[in-house]
Specification:
The chain is α/β, with parallel strands linked by helices. It is built from 6 helices and 10 strands, in the order E-H-E-H-E-H-E-H-E-H-E-E-H-E-E-E. The chain has 2 domains: 103 residues, Rossmann fold (3-Layer(aba) Sandwich), CATH 3.40.50.170; 107 residues, Formyl transferase, N-terminal domain (Rossmann fold), CATH 3.40.50. The structure holds 5-O-phosphono-beta-D-ribofuranosylamine.
């Protein structure tokens, strides 16, 4: 069966990109990366993709007068590459309806919090400062509102008294890599449907809610 063609968008170090590159090395995984696209010419993730022999592209937002023309250029590049599913992986630009509507139902994002709590930046620091007892991450469909689309999978981990934003981020990041792989597999296998803003995953059982214990 043909593998689903992914377009992975990132702006920085690219560890989520790396997790996707790694799992796609397995020929039995039902998806492959058709294009790794960055808005930053110096994003370290570009080297990761090149090392894996995956096509890369840079579309620098600074080369465009406005967001719509930047996003239109991305849409064209991704369409040319035959991309069927967008995976946002640390892509640090707000997206307008030009992008969001073009990829409606065909774009997913990973966010380092248990949405709908803590959309936006500095999620771990905010959770610690609030005295929250759990942190985690979410894979969700892209929607017009930032970090707010229908939830596909989440992983939770306890926040310990000794946690710092960095220690928490490191623990959550491991879980990000795991739930992103799972979510991509489910989309690629055609097991995901949406109804009234909720996501159903055929046969996924408990796999969509993943608990990451702390290791003492
Ligand atoms: C991750 O924490 C992801 O959830 C968020 O941005 C970060 C990107 O990290 N959207 P990396 O570049 O994948 O290492």
């Amino acid at each position: 069966m043909a593998r689903l063609k992914l377009g992975v968008l990132f702006s920085g170090r690219g560890t989520n990109l790396q997790a996707i590159l790694d799992v796609c090395q397995n020929p039995s995984f039902p998806a492959e990366i058709a294009l790794a696209l960055s808005n930053k010419p110096d994003a370290p993730g570009l080297l990761r993709a090149q090392d894996a022999g995956v096509a890369t592209s840079v579309i620098n937002h600074k080369d465009f007068l406005d967001r719509p023309s930047f996003e239109q250029a991305m849409n064209e590049r991704l369409d040319e590459a035959g991309v069927e599913l967008i995976c946002l992986a640390g892509f640090m630009r707000l997206l307008t309806p030009i992008f969001v509507n073009h990829w409606d139902g065909r774009a997913i994002n990973i966010h380092p919090s248990l949405l709908p709590a803590y959309p936006g930046l500095h999620t771990h620091e905010r959770a610690i400062n609030d005295g929250a007892r759990f942190a985690g991450c979410t894979v969700h469909f892209l929607s017009a509102e930032m970090d707010a689309g229908p939830i596909i999978a989440q992983a939770a981990t306890p926040i310990r008294a000794i946690d710092t934003p960095d220690s928490l981020a490191a623990r959550v990041l491991e879980a990000e890599h795991e739930i992103y792989r799972r979510a991509i597999r489910w989309v690629a296998e055609g097991r995901i449907t949406q109804q009234d803003g909720r996501v159903m995953i055929d046969g996924a059982g408990e796999d969509a809610s993943f608990y990451l214990p702390t290791v003492d």
